[in-house]
Amino acid sequence: MTVQKPTTPLKTRRDFLTAAAATAGLATAASFTPTRFAIGNTAKVKIGVLLPYSGTYALLGESITSGLKLYIDQNGGKLGGREVEYVQVDSEMSVPKAAANTSRLVTKENVDFVVGPVHSGIAQVMAKNLGKKKTPIMIVPNAGSTLVTGPLCAPNIFRTSFTNWQPAYPGGKVMAADGRKTCVTIAWKYAAGIQMMDAGKQAFEEEGGKVVKQIYVPFPNVEFQAYFTEIADLKPDCVFAFFGGGGDIKFVKEYAAFGLKKNIPLYGPGFLTEGIVKAQGAAADGIRTTLHYADGMDNPVDAKFRADFKAATGKPSNVFAVQGFDTGALLKIGLDAVGGDAGATANVIAAMEKAKIDSPRGKISFSKAHNVIQDIYLREAQGGENKFQKVVASQLEDPAKGCKM
Ligand code: BEZ
């Protein structure tokens, strides 16, 4: 096959699109698929990033962005041979602004891919707006809403992070295995909190435990004292909790200061202590959580990632950085398969579906619903680390209820 080159180098994305259109015309006449030749290696791949850079989830947004950029920088700053341009928008964790923010990236900025968000409510809006469209491909690097790879699943939506069910369900089993008989759940009242608490409750009760109360706190409120009084009165064997980011620092410290920690142990999906366990200090010691990442996993890919991340950002790694890093890896797999032709969406999707990534968290692949399949670890917080205990679920796949694809 002869690969045609444009006569002048393509400098802008518009040049690239014009050349690609001209190429498509030629291709029809010549009956071959011209996915590789209009690239010119000078038009940039545009990645729209919709993440929180302010508020309680700012650490998560910053960590994901740093992980994503680290992966791409380590690969010469290119995907499929093309340089990368980022358009970053602060989601402000605002569900009402989610549709406008998404549309700004797609129609005004004309991005090739959308990476985001952190917040499950925003993910649901984005999936409704972008799902089943030919372009762009959306990659979720955090938000765990089970709807996104459930009823809202679509060929052009992938998730490199987790569903809210994946780390929470094994957490319920752990509480039962630890001999706890009764439990109170407490979380922010939105999709992530509700789905995680329901998954933990289901697993705990399948093992004979009883959730005596489910407490929900309006998002993103961090006034916990009245709820602590209620928990003290209920006297459960344990508490299963999700807040996330800055909210978890305050929750865990105040839980201990209120005097609850010594009699009613805290459990939760690993977000309860992830990335903030040092800031929580001694108040976090002993908290057992389940997540797809842990400190001390004895994994050489992770050891290298941690060192590289520290060198690049000056900060310690966390699960959110890993999710960003793996998003970079998935983008590279997709774009390498088509020589950088982001418009060849069906081929990009086919390559991503087959992706097997040796991630810092362990081996990952993708389900039919395009959600990540991964190991879930039990960790215990000690001295500012979430120390690896054991694998509690091997290559766990979300049930993807309601996904028709
Ligand atoms: C979510 O909204 O899906 C989410 C936010 C923070 C941590 C984990 C999940």
Estimated helix fraction: 25-40%
Structural class: alpha/beta
As a percent range, the share of strand residues is: 15-25%
Average pLDDT for all residues: 91
The run of helices and strands is HEHEEHEHEEHEHEHEHEHEHHHEEEE
**First CA to last CA: what distance?**
34 Å
Name the bound molecules.
Answer: benzoic acid
Give the total of beta strands. 15
Q: Gyration radius, to the nearest Å?
A: 22 Å
Given as residue ranges, the uncertain stretches (5+ residues, pLDDT < 50) are: 1-37
Shape: globular
Keywords:
405 residues, alpha/beta, 9-stranded mixed sheet, 6-stranded mixed sheet, 15 strands, disordered N terminus, binds benzoic acid
Description:
The protein is of the alpha/beta class. 38% of the residues lie in helices and 21% in strands. The chain has helices spanning 13-30, 58-74, 98-108, 120-130, 165-177, 191-206, 225-234, 246-257, 277-280, 300-313, 319-337, 345-353; strands at 45-51, 78-79, 82-90, 113-115, 137-140, 157-159, 182-188, 210-217, 238-242, 266-269, 288-291, 357-359, 362-366, 372-382, 385-396. The strands form 2 sheets. Strands 7, 8, 9, 10, 11, 12, 13, 14 and 15 form a 9-stranded mixed beta sheet that branches. Strands 2-3-1-4-5-6 form a 6-stranded mixed beta sheet, sandwiched between helices. Helix 3 packs across helix 4 (120-130). The chain is globular, with a radius of gyration of 22 Å. The two termini are 34 Å apart. The relative contact order is 0.14. Residues 1-37 have low confidence and may be disordered. Benzoic acid is lined by residues 60, 118-120, 142-145, 192, 244, 271.
